[in-house]
Prior knowledge:
Elements: H1 3-8, E1 16-20, E2 23-26, H2 27-43, E3 51-55, H3 60-71, E4 75-78, H4 85-95, E5 99-102, H5 106-117, E6 123-126, H6 129-134, E7 151-157, E8 165-170, H7 171-182, E9 194-197, H8 204-216, E10 220-223, H9 229-238, E11 243-246, H10 248-256, E12 269-272, H11 279-289, E13 293-298, E14 305-308, E15 320-322, E16 329-333, E17 346-351, E18 358-359, H12 363-369, E19 376-384, E20 390-395, E21 400-402, E22 405-407, H13 409-417, E23 422-432, E24 436-445, H14 453-463, E25 472-476, H15 489-493
Parallel strand pairs: 1-10, 3-4, 3-5, 5-6, 9-10, 11-12, 12-13, 24-25
Antiparallel strand pairs: 1-2, 7-8, 8-18, 13-14, 15-20, 16-17, 17-19, 19-20, 21-22, 23-24
Amino acid sequence: MNLVEVVLGSGAPDAPALVGPRGVTSYSALSEIVERLAGQLSAKGVQPGDRVVVMSGNDEGFVVSYLAVLQVGGIAVPLNPLAPAAELGREIAAIEPKLALAAGDLVSVLGAAGALAAVSAADVVAVDLDALGDAPAPAPTTSVDRADDDVAVLLFTSGTAGPPKAAILTHGNLAANIRQVLEHPGLRLDASDIALGVLPFFHVFGLNVVLGVTLAAGGSVALVEHFEPAATARVISEQKVTVVAGVPTMFTAWIDAEVPADTFSSVRLAVSGAAELPAQTAVGFRERFGVELHQGYGLTEAAPIVTSTALMTVSPPPGSIGPPVPGVEVRLVDADGTDVLAGDPGELWVRGPNVFPGYWHDTEATERALTPDGWLRTGDVAVVDDNGGLRLVDRAKDLIIVSGFNVYPVEVEDVLREHPDVVDAAVVGEPSPRTGEAVAAYVQATPGHQIDTDALNVHCARALARYKCPSRYEVVTDLPRALSGKLLRRELRT
């Protein structure tokens, strides 16, 4: 079984697979152009198991390159086209590719990165779809057969903790998560669906949830290179998009943008992931556009979806990430790996055919992430909500222990943000000779307001136990966040 067969196996030949800068690309046209590039890769000596870098925007060039690498049995390594050359160089050096595929200006970017990495084997090949289309039609070929445990993709991620490393995703991992999504009516797509393809394809959310799931269902993907609220909203409206997957900051931007209230009238499923969805964003999106916004939870190492509120038959409570998708097991455990009592928070462990086998050439990191019997330690702390779904409490590594008492930063941050003078807050632990750790709060003032830390002390004391109250405040102009909106507490700790 090759993942390409899963992804392209359900689309009717004349049905649209992609709608993008090159117009409409049917399934038959996509299959043919993939086959042509696969032939070129074979001619350049790409063998099963060879790593091939793929760097392009969210366009037809990326889709064709990705699928062609898989078709010949290679390992696709999508990289961020906006990453600095030095970072790209480190990643290229780490995976030692046979070839690197790029389009347009990215050819020179990858060339520079390859030089920085001093990887002579990283021959950068320009992907020219027009030239491929004009080439003589190749003889019919079949995808190279791959086992479920053969590596399909390497994706760079910070993992459950630590510096970026290459997560291994197999053909079986990616195909399993596609099936898990399509097997539940709450998430299932079909051939009539049009999904918004704006999430970066070099990230697992865009790669397997948007691109993989949609094509495997026989639907079409509306390709969008860069997110801009008004322009992307026009794509949704004009293309009659039915499924929108995004990160919280995207939905917030749409709420704030001057777009018509009926922009999302064709959307039947909207899901947010990659970072915590603020309750006010979910409510605001429903009130502004009349569309229920679901929250999911996943991570690269799970290919990626683990849970989703779209699986629930009742209205999810605020903060819920829903129950696990079919075929995924979850546990909540304490520091010793023992299941916690009902109602208690614990680290979320995940097991299933979608869980990755480890990190590329990093045995130590793999052993930290996976138990001997295949459980993925996510590093996230969760509790079971009243409706049987899960709710994230915090990151296990962010836990602060004050005089033996556990303090979860999110709880303190939520209280701080309730004060009218505070627009945003982040809480981390810092060493204390008296209590082991103490709570330090970084707070950002509401525009036009000034922060009085004495007033914040009084405010926190009303809502929190004494040991949870910050012992130190630092007023900052902004807080470090990832593009997804996820708070980067590690930068504050360092």
